[in-house]
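Re: that backbone. Tokens:
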């Protein structure tokens, strides 16, 4: 079995094109390989904490990663603390509607989840954690919220969500 190239805590540069959403190079810290987390022999795909993102993201193939420095777990803790502050801010409905134009055009995952929570969609990823399910749910949520976001109408959004939930309950068998 080949040794794995990157270890937990390694600071890496992620190449453009490493994932569907990787439109530019980004810094990240390795959380672990598939084998580290789940066992088995797969040691060339990794879960990363990408700088500026709110949490772990999987699976990044080894050829897209370049080592910057080993054992940067202190920096990972700092990035996680910064991400938590950002999560609290961008997941707050008051902030979301105060920044509705920006959120409508380029939402964070936390903003989308906070909006989806309002109408009872508590897991954008679905039961199997699929990226396409997330994308569809996120896009639908933003499409539904867009008029309210653009007008800064938080109360209108919450009323709309209550109506959707009531209609859903009324149509259940």
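Recovered sequence:
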């Amino acid at each position: 079995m080949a040794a794995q190239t990157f270890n937990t805590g390694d600071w890496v540069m992620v190449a453009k094109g490493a994932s569907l959403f990787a439109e530019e190079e980004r810094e990240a810290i390795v959380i672990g390989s598939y084998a580290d987390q789940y066992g088995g022999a797969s040691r060339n795909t990794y879960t990363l904490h990408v700088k500026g993102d709110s949490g772990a993201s999987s699976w990044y193939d080894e050829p897209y990663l370049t080592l910057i420095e080993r054992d940067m777990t202190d920096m990972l803790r700092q990035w996680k603390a910064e991400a938590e502050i950002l999560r609290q801010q961008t997941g707050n409905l008051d902030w979301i509607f105060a920044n509705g134009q920006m959120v409508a055009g380029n939402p964070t995952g936390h903003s989308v989840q906070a909006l989806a929570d309002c109408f009872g969609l508590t897991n954008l990823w679905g039961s199997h954690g699929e990226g396409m399910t997330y994308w569809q749910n996120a896009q639908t949520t933003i499409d539904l919220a867009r008029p309210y976001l653009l007008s800064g109408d938080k109360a209108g959004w919450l009323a709309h969500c209550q109506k959707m939930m009531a209609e859903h309950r009324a149509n259940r068998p």
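The longest strand covers residues 26-33. The beta strands are 11-14, 26-33, 45-50, 56-61, 65-69.
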